[in-house]
Fold:
Amino acid sequence: MKRIMGASSNIEYCIPQRLRDARIADGKTIKEVAEALGISAQVLSMFELGRCKVSVEMFFRLKNMYSMPNSFYGTQYMDNVARSTVFFRKFSAATKRKREQALKRADFISCNIIKFFGGKIKFPEVDGLFDEIKTSVNIEKKRDPELWAKLIRRKWNMGMGPISNLIRDLERRGIIVVVMPMDNDVDGFSYWQDGRPFIFVNKNNTAVRLRMSIAHELCHLFFHEEEDIERELKRVEDEAKAFAGAFLLPEVALHNELYMGSLEQFRYLKSKWRISINGIIMRAKQLFLIDDNRYTYLQTQISRKKWRKIEPEDDVIEQEQPVLLSQAIRLFIDDGIMTRDEMIEEIGLSGRFIESHCSLPNGYFDRVHNNLVHMDFKGHKKNQWN
Structure:
């Protein structure tokens, strides 16, 4: 921990590593930040390594650039987070810089936000099915995503109909799901940390793509280990993709509902099952419910209608949002346990970061909304806004 030259007591120390963490989470390179500050990349690197003292002026310039509270820079950070292998969807398209940015933000959630609530709020326990499957040799040997999807639906009593809210179902089973801003080259990723599964998905995606990414990551959490990704990345991704389709749209359901195979029927099925039109068409082909000629015809129609990037209903189907973290935050704020400013300092992250990564409305942490809780003469809580 380095003393900031000439600093007042509340920002007297800055952990050099935190300057690097803030930069990576902001998606900036050393060169980009150095040029913006008018200093050399070497000097900035020395700041981040703790080999050069940071002046008050420079600290505030960095702080304003990264928009993190004072407490962020004085809080010790776990450099080597004890987590499992990280499974990235769209792994090959994501550059190292983009992956590092997404992972650093994920670390802030698990090491700042989750840790803050640890011992204060009891999150749902992790479902025992994870351990049951990991210890089952028979399931591992079969390597059958269709079987895996049927098994989980059966064990979780989900039936064979559409899953109305996938995120809520997973949160109830102890999975932390985070819908957060990411680069377009990263759809999502997942890992285990401290005995709890985490799924992170890109909030910029459509509702149907978001659900597919979540189901894809669920497969990784259940069925894939570190050695899988090291040996056979393509097989791992193919299995997760097949599992996601089978989990969201079971074979028996598609058999019963697909009778015409017209593009309009696939559009109807999208609204009901909340899977992309093209995703349902591909699933129908995999299950031999349509032949190659029909598949080619439908793909031609999709191209002709310019549905490759944006499909009908994409602007209608509402994106699911997690509630575990947002409810925990609201509980503390609305019940007057602490003010918004106090929570920002305690967690050590900016209000904007917490809002965008915990499914809170923009501006929730603005100072104008800080509330004090008073008791009236009847003993009821009253909110006073200032």
About this structure: Residues 86 and 326 are 24 Å apart (CA to CA). Residues 87-304 form one domain.
